[in-house]
Write the structure tokens for this entry.
Amino acid sequence: MKNDEFIVARIEEAIQESKDSKTFILPNALNSRPGQFVMLWLPGAGEKPISISGEKNGKFSVTVCAVGPVSKAMYKLKKGDKLGFRGPFGTHYTIPKDSTSIAVVGGGYGSAPLAYLSEVAIAQGKKVYFIEGARNKARLLFAERMKKAGAEVLLSTDDGSEGIKGYSTDVLKNLLKTHKIDKVFTCGPEIMMKKVAEISQKFKIKCEISMERYMKCGIGLCGQCAVDELGICLCKEGPILPGEKALSLKEFGSYRRDSTGKKVEW
């Protein structure tokens, strides 16, 4: 399909991932790549950019976490309900052809595109270390899915209810000290991603991050998701960026802009 074509589809399956997260499977082939997103639309609620969390057998999935008015309305949907979408949009993660092992670092619902990436990498014969962090055990989203896929799953929680008590960045640092990793990929809270990029840079390992901003058009026209200092639009030149490029952005890990353009600190 063309990514500027608007489609309405019925949800084929609604999978409860956590108490406030669901994965919806839609019967459409996107020919997407891990890291890309769709503009998901629910009449009466609005439109929102959502990362693609998987695609296979002519179907794709999105994972929605109930964190704002639009996503809370989408979260209430069930099998058979309709969702509108357009896409896929944006840049994607790139797995080096000559790599043998990669590490992915996810936080919260940011783990969704990393689950998709991990399954693709495993299908290519790569060793995948899937690092996932959350506030507590109940908020870990894809641990079981990744174990079934064949990834080595390394977990951390703020309260120690699952995995180590601490942060996913601590797990990454320990992994890089003891294992040969060819590339690091991350998605999640921006402060976490900045730390991942800094750790990767310290170990001289390539890194890719997924940088989220307020998006309206999804095709680089409105300029709503332009970032300081480069002025690039993340809907088109992102959301996936090399770690070193992200670290050159003045606002990365420091602030974002709301729908009015006002600065909001992380």
